[in-house]
Write a structure and sequence with these properties.
Keywords: Cell membrane, Ion transport, Membrane, Sodium, Sodium transport, Transmembrane, Transmembrane helix, Transport. The chain has helices spanning about 1-25, 30-40, 55-70, 75-80, 80-105, 115-125, 130-135, 145-175, 180-200. By secondary structure, it is mostly helical. It folds into 2 domains: about 1-50; about 55-200, no CATH class.
Length: about 200
């Protein structure tokens, strides 16, 4: 019952944040949602004190958002700009994780060993497609830049998952497998792309 009440409060908070954004759209929607989430967590009630399993959160919240945003994208644009999109979603994500993880380890070497620092960096590196869209909705952004950002935020989750899996394996065992990481990347990235295009064809 507590979990159900917490989910109802969560969805109510999202609706209220969206309504406020419609009335006063000066700030990005994501800012309103973050503020509403902080206020919800500050309420003196145990209804918001619950734990949602990551698999359930991915299925109920993340997957519908990503699917809805992915339906509005153009496969022709993706194929004609795949080099720039992959350079941002894969290469830039990898460089960002390496730099952020190294800085975190050097700043707090006893708290964050390299594997743990890279794990944290891989979690915060991938951008969110919904957040990018909400932030740039009231801004004048060149069409090619806006398109590259939206597509990059859809695909860099695969990079984040691979880097997180690699860092987690290295943290637990003290060693890592490049072949396993490449297999995970192929499975997440290419299989999702194929299934998405197959669904769009149907």
């Amino acid at each position: 019952m507590g979990l159900l009440l917490g989910i109802i409060l969560l969805f109510t908070t999202v609706v209220v944040a969206n309504v406020i954004h419609l009335i006063y759209p000066k700030l990005p929607l994501s800012i309103y949602q973050i503020i509403a989430g902080v206020l919800l967590a500050s309420l003196p009630t145990t209804a918001t004190d619950f734990t949602m399993h990551p698999e359930l959160f991915m299925m109920v919240v993340i997957a519908p958002l990503m699917f809805n945003d992915g339906q509005n994208q153009s496969f022709r644009y993706l194929t004609s700009n795949y080099k720039s999109i992959l350079s941002i979603s894969v290469v830039l994500a990898l460089v960002t994780v390496l730099i952020s993880g190294a800085i975190l380890h050097l700043a707090l070497p006893t708290v964050f060993p390299f594997a743990l620092a890279f794990m944290l960096a891989s979690i915060i590196t991938p951008t969110d497609a919904v957040a990018v869209k909400s932030i740039t909705s009231n801004m004048t952004v060149p069409e090619n830049v806006n398109g590259a950002l939206e597509y990059e935020s859809l695909f860099n989750d695969a990079s984040g998952i691979v880097l997180l899996d690699l860092s987690l394996a290295a943290y637990q065992s003290g060693e890592f497998s490049l072949g396993h990481s490449l297999w995970i990347f192929s499975y997440v990235f290419l299989a999702a792309l194929f299934l998405g295009q197959l669904w769009e064809t149907w």
